[in-house]
Design brief:
- This protein has an eight-stranded mixed β-sheet with strand order 1-4-3-2-5-6-8-7, with helices on both faces.
- The relative contact order is 0.16.
- The protein is globular and about 55 Å long.
- By secondary structure, it is of the alpha/beta class.
- It has eleven helices and eight strands.
- It has a single domain, classed as Rossmann fold.
- Helix 2 runs antiparallel to helix 5, helix 3 packs across helix 4 and helix 5 (200-209) packs across helix 7.
C-alpha cells in the first residue's frame, strides 16, 4: 500500500551538539526530538515536555503511524481521517511542532517490513537525536505494533544499505519510552522525569484540539458521553479534570526522582510531570547525559 505522508514541512537535517541548559537553540546546537505514536492524539501524551523543547528553540516532530479512520461511533473512513488530520495540525500548532500523519488504517497496523522502513525513513529524514514511542506492553494492538516498529528501526537507522534512498545516521539516537501503567511482562521504570506545571495549559489545549476523540469517541467508548458539556469552555475544564491535569498525582508518582533532578524545594512542589524510560535498543546515556539532552534542570 502506498503511504501518504502529511506534514507542515520537511525540516532540514542538521548536526547536533548538546546544549547548555536554559539557552534558546538554533542551527547546529538544536536538538531534534521525534515522538512516534499509533494514532492522532497519541504523541500528545508527552506534549508538555515537547512544548518545553520547542520553547527552548529545539525541533520536535510528532508522528502518527495511522490515520485514525476507525476511532469513532458515528463516522469513519476518509471523512474521519480528514477530520483527525485537521485535529493534529491544530495540536501541533499549539506548541509549534510539526505533526506528520501516515495513511495506514486505524486498528490494522502491522509490524511489516514496509512500515519498518517508513519509520526508519522518518527518523533519518528528521535526523533525530531522541526517538520516543510507546512500550510494547499495551492494551491496543496498534500501540504494541508501533513500539515493535520503532524498536526494530533502532540500529537499522545506522545501516547504509537499509532504506538506501535516505542517508543513514552516523550514530544511533537515544530511543525512549513514554510512561504507562502496564506491568506484564515488566513495569515502566523511569530514567528521567520532566516537570510540566509551567506548560500544562498547552498540553490541555493540544488534547482540546482532538474534539472527535476527547469529547465524542472516548466518552462514548467509556460510557460517559452524556457527561460531556456542550459549552466549549466547560468542555475544556471537564477534559482537564477527567484526564487528571488538575491533580498532583503525576508529581506524587515520581516525587523521589523529581527531588533528585530539581532539588528538594522545587521537586517537592511539582504537580504535573512526564516520565521517560531509556530503551535498550538505542544509545545508552548516563544520567548526566540525559540531563543534558533534557535541558530543563538547574
Amino acid at each position: 500500500m502506498t503511504k501518504i505522508r502529511y506534514s507542515l514541512s520537511l525540516l532540514a537535517a542538521v548536526g547536533v551538539l548538546l546544549p547548555a541548559p536554559g539557552v534558546a537553540q538554533s542551527g547546529e546546537s538544536q536538538l531534534r526530538i521525534i515522538v512516534i505514536g499509533a494514532h492522532p492524539d497519541d504523541p500528545e501524551k508527552v506534549g508538555g515536555t515537547m512544548a518545553k523543547f520547542v520553547e527552548m528553540g529545539h525541533k520536535v516532530r510528532l508522528v502518527s503511524l495511522t490515520n485514525g479512520n476507525a476511532g469513532h461511533f458515528e463516522m469513519g473512513g476518509g471523512p474521519l481521517a480528514q477530520r483527525r488530520y485537521k485535529e493534529t495540525q491544530c495540536a501541533g500548532g499549539v506548541i509549534g511542532a510539526e505533526y506528520v500523519v501516515l495513511d495506514n488504517d486505524d486498528g490494522k497496523l502491522m509490524p511489516t517490513l514496509e512500515n519498518r522502513e517508513e519509520v526508519i525513513r522518518q527518523i533519518r529524514e528528521f535526523q533525530a537525536d531522541i526517538v520516543i514511542s510507546p512500550r510494547p506492553n499495551d492494551y491496543h494492538p496498534d500501540h504494541r505494533n508501533t513500539a515493535l516498529l520503532v524498536r526494530d528501526a533502532a540500529y537499522m537507522v545506522t545501516v547504509p544499505n537499509i532504506v538506501a534512498s535516505v542517508p543513514h545516521l552516523m550514530k544511533n539516537p537515544i530511543f525512549m519510552y513514554m510512561a504507562d501503567r502496564f506491568t506484564e511482562p515488566s513495569p515502566f521504570v523511569p530514567d528521567i522525569v520532566v516537570a510540566i506545571d509551567d506548560v500544562i495549559e498547552k498540553k490541555i489545549d493540544m488534547y482540546h484540539c482532538h474534539e472527535s476523540q476527547m469529547y465524542e469517541w472516548l466518552p462514548y467508548n467509556q460510557g460517559v458521553l452524556d457527561a460531556v458539556p456542550s459549552d466549549t469552555s466547560r468542555r475544556r475544564d471537564w477534559l482537564a479534570n477527567v484526564r487528571g491535569f488538575r491533580t498532583s498525582q503525576p508529581g506524587q508518582t515520581y516525587r523521589e526522582m523529581l527531588i533528585q533532578l530539581y532539588g528538594q524545594q522545587q521537586g517537592s512542589q511539582v504537580r504535573q510531570a512526564e516520565a521517560f524510560q531509556v530503551s535498550e535498543y538505542g544509545a545508552q546515556p548516563s544520567l548526566e547525559e540525559l540531563k543534558r539532552l533534557f535541558p530543563f534542570f538547574n
